[in-house]
């Protein structure tokens, strides 16, 4: 496609959306508080971690989206687009440049070098155990838990040690998000959200719902691809888009397992209510249908077949820079739009500084999400957004304040 200095939604024919933190906006501060409480208590109660350190009040200024965990060394990192390490804490303590170089000679580390080359190289396999990225509001609070656990271990002894905290933290995260827990009420996360939906979700405005319908009325095919299993996705979508949420989409894919959805060729699985039935062939996918798993290649054929004009143009809108932006752009040739609430929380790139949970999204100690305070270098996350999405928005609510064919300037980044 010809690169222009503007972006327009109506230049695309088949437009897909992620659900969580894209169409469905969360009250991020309340969610992070809740997640901190659940994860910290899990580690204290089940894994013997220090209550003194982990059960302190949440320090929201330490949290920022996009921190990278080095489990062996007990460090949290930020890197620039070329993989240079630009900021590091050991536990909660910020390191000087000289201290950083003791851990990472020449400010480089094999794991982050691989990640900078291609983030999917460290998504699975051996390096996924050495480094982890905390990319969205589901897991960013794990950074503070990790750092406090490191502080606790350091306080016990000053000898050099292996931290190996991540496997325990992963157990805690998996316990929180295990899909079965939505229905069997075993975990604390889903039962809390089910009991108090208004505390955690914003309802979509009537503007936004009309904007989606206006896209459909103009002949676009609209689809949803979410990682959530169908029961939780139904809960979230009903409380944000409304009880008629399915009517906004020509097809819904849940439990899509991004980024693999865009890189692999898994079968679509049919559903009977919330129960998976069996594989569904491409030719049997239906408009108005809902499925789990699946893959982009087949979905694209399905969308193209139903668009009824040759060579439709595809767009995907999401918030997770690896699952929703990098993977579809690089592996599936799909153009993307990034939803990034930090644009408003920081008040940058033409947006007014306004966000009810600014204190959770912004950090005076790390500095901007987009740019490193001390070195002045742009972060790798900024570079992924710039290189792999056509356009950034703070929310779909923002986009919906404009007509569907509005030309947004893109030469401001
Ligand atoms: Mg999301």
TrEMBL record:
The lineage of its organism: Eukaryota, Metazoa, Ecdysozoa, Arthropoda, Hexapoda. This is 5'-nucleotidase domain-containing protein 1. PANTHER family: 5'-NUCLEOTIDASE DOMAIN-CONTAINING, 5'-NUCLEOTIDASE DOMAIN-CONTAINING PROTEIN 1. Belongs to the 5'(3')-deoxyribonucleotidase family. It comes from Rhynchophorus ferrugineus. One of its GO terms (molecular function) is metal ion binding. The keyword RNA-binding does not apply. The keyword Disulfide bond does not apply. Keywords: Acetylation, Hydrolase, Magnesium, Metal-binding.
